[in-house]
Amino acid sequence: GENVEQHPSTLSVQEGDSAVIKCTYSDSASNYFPWYKQELGKRPQLIIDIRSNVGEKKDQRIAVTLNKTAKHFSLHITETQPEDSAVYFCAAKIQGAQKLVFGQGTRLTINP
Amino acid sequence: DTAVSQTPKYLVTQMGNDKSIKCEQNLGHDTMYWYKQDSKKFLKIMFSYNNKELIINETVPNRFSPKSPDKAHLNLHINSLELGDSAVYFCASRGQDEQFFGPGTRLTVL
Predict the structure, then answer these.
(1) A107/B97 touch (CB, cutoff 8 Å), yes or no
(2) Pair B91, B66: CB distance under 8 Å
(3) How far is B99 from chain A (nearest CA, A)?
(4) Mean pLDDT by 10 residues, chain A (112 residues)
(5) Which residues from B are below 8 Å from A97, CB to CB?
(6) What is the rounded distance in angstroms from the CA atom of residue B20 to the CA atom of residue A107?
């Protein structure tokens, strides 16, 4: 079955700097890769996703890159702000499968 | 309009009791899920239903029994609660691939 590894588990950056979170997946049949943001006490919310036919996707300060050959994908947050502080989860879904497999989560702290 | 809703938001109960959590989605999706999130924040899938039929059961103890009266609802009943059941339980609903989570139910077993 699919396995998703996420690094780092914690990340602390200065406000205004960039943050990068990386995930690797095991099953080459995976074709959908979402990222979720979970603020303290709140639900996980989808912030960006990418499909296997695309190498990069951007939405304002957030971007995701996918390397299918290496089986890894990354979340990039530029010009970080205090409200970016949260736990971020990556996930992968095998084509035709019914479930997402989540990474272990990264606690991102933005220092003012 | 809340897309995925859960009740109750908080549940505090004694060991050995039986409790239920309800979930409803108004997105018209066929597939719904229950996840358990423990204190380390890991999201662990428990069950999935597609159009009222169980399609995923991730080796969850028999004390947990999901029920889907229709495709817009997926409830979770837990018998004989144990201390280790304390966690946040999230319901989710899936469209084509995207999953949308409910607000969560924080269960505390004393």
Answers:
(1) no
(2) no
(3) 8
(4) 93 98 95 97 96 92 96 97 98 88 97 93
(5) none
(6) 31
